[in-house]
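Example record

One chain of 353 residues, shown exactly as stored in the release files.
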Amino acid sequence: MVGTEVVKKTKINILQFMKNRIIVLVVAALCYFNLYAQQQVKIGIIGLDTSHSTAFTKFLNGGEAKEYAGFKIVAAYPYGSKTIKSSYERIPKYIEEVKKYGVEIVPNINDLLSKVDFVLLETNDGNLHLEQAAAIFKAGKIAFVDKPLGANLAQAIAIVELSKQYKVPFFTSSALRFSSQNMKLRKGESGKVLCVDYTSPAVKEPSHADFSWYGIHGVEALFTIMGKDCKFVSRMQSDTEDVVVGKWDDGRTGSFRGRKAGPNMYSYGGVAYTDKGVMPVGGYEGYMDLLNEILTFFRTGVVPVSPEETLEIFTFMEASNESARKGGKIISMEETYKKGEKEAKKLLKKLNR
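Predicted structure tokens for this chain:
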């Protein structure tokens, strides 16, 4: 009987210990999550030369994104393009706009990086992104880099290489990627995608390779729906539009129709042909879905768009430019990327001097 009582008491003690241990762990977890919920996540903006900067500030600091109340934009470095008139003319106005929401304007990027946890690299001029991204990655700050990642393929490759070198994740995307319809098509909810024809504006900026300034919206949407592994590209041109056709490794085709003039120049849309029928593609739906993805990325560190897919988008655009230079000739994506890689190495060598 004595032995039995000892065993019973021992079991009771063990059970009580386990209960106490579970309670301690639960309380500790609740305290941790409560602390996380209360802690302010500080975000910095580089570049007040785009409407994206003011839109994100209004969402977060203006209380429009209540589910992300713990995130706040606390500082901004305004510059920003100094050569593209349509961009630098906005800066004074946008400085005043973000200041209304309690954003501190800082004199340089290093000062900004010392004040924030995460970065929104919003500079409209893709030519500045390589140097700015280098400073961000060296500081170990996770960032969203707004479109375009670079002004051309070589710059985009160089930024991805820097991200790998410093082991700091980032992603870049157009807001069109995350439209509800494009996401449904991406996930196969409307059937297997067989072919896509996507139309968007393709306004040009001389300092950027064709499509990387504005046509990238439509190209990104095309790749969102079709996925990776495009192998060959051909481009035809007219006064009102450029049409680029890509052939994927599984035999499917997808086209981007970049509008340059005419009454429908600023339209977004098109069709996706699936094994369940013809479906409309998604257009512009604002910035909120993109912001949701950015803040989720800041929380988790998991990129919603892989660097590999981003580089395919830039390779597609550069291959289309090469095709245009050669009168519509079919261009290899692989060969185009190799050329971009060589140029990227030169850029990185120059940057590290």
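Notes: The mean pLDDT is 90.
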